[in-house]
């Protein structure tokens, strides 16, 4: 029985192009007690592999967090399979607005300690005492209230290309860092202000809202389904859209355009641009914003050093990478002194 990928990303890309069939990019999460995450993981992999589902899925004792691409014609099967799992019955599926055939090129189902790396010790607070969920309509009303503090729970490279008007966007690399910074900034408002938070698909707010309530914030609200679901509701219900720019997403597309505003700049030349890319040097893989002109001039690299490396023979590049564990973790996401226009 096959429990792991056999095709490389390149081979998969070719197959997808040849097949040309419609796919749906979607995500969902659920906090639930899972007794044996490994067994559950294998169950998911076997079924989804058979259904030609691709994506990145994390399974832990605390639940599941999944980002997927599903063949449109297998969607009914996929949905039935989910509904057959008691804690996933009628789980909200966040369906991406912009569809891309190649949003995911592999099926990776991983067992982790947690479904979001939040760095929190869950035993120290009541994780079920979460904030009040609000939909797009209520969220729009709330954030007009002068008594509201609106907080973006995402990292700097995400809010840089798009965020809600008037939101606090902490300049952080990790979710854990943002929790402390926000608490510190807002400590005088715990009693009287309403704390309203949002993230990409809602999952980070599930923990953050419980954490802030534990820390003494009295009025905590969270955007249900995050920016993805907000954009869908705004479109379907003809509501005012208070988000500007692009929603950063964690798949091949890297961003989903919500409005035409381009609020960020190319990190190499400073021109308006909101397209993320990863440095073409495998050993670097830095995530940064690069315009088309710079992509050509810099050969998709972040620096002249990286250009030199990609011109070396593959064997030589491999030799240089040796002994450097997990190379793309060495660089902080989206930060490098070599990028002239990265604040
Ligand atoms: Zn540029
Ligand atoms: Zn680089």
TrEMBL record:
The keyword Transport does not apply. The keyword Transmembrane helix does not apply. Keywords: Oxidoreductase, tRNA processing. CDD domains: RHOD_YceA. Residues 144-239 form the Rhodanese domain. It is an enzyme of class 1 (oxidoreductase). Its EC number is 1.14.-.-. It catalyses: uridine(34) in tRNA + AH2 + O2 = 5-hydroxyuridine(34) in tRNA + A + H2O. Belongs to the TrhO family. Catalyzes oxygen-dependent 5-hydroxyuridine (ho5U) modification at position 34 in tRNAs, the first step in 5-carboxymethoxyuridine (cmo5U) biosynthesis. May be part of an alternate pathway, which is able to bypass cmo5U biogenesis in a subset of tRNAs under aerobic conditions. This is tRNA uridine(34) hydroxylase. It comes from Aequorivita echinoideorum. The lineage of its organism: Bacteria, Pseudomonadati, Bacteroidota, Flavobacteriia, Flavobacteriales. The gene is trhO.
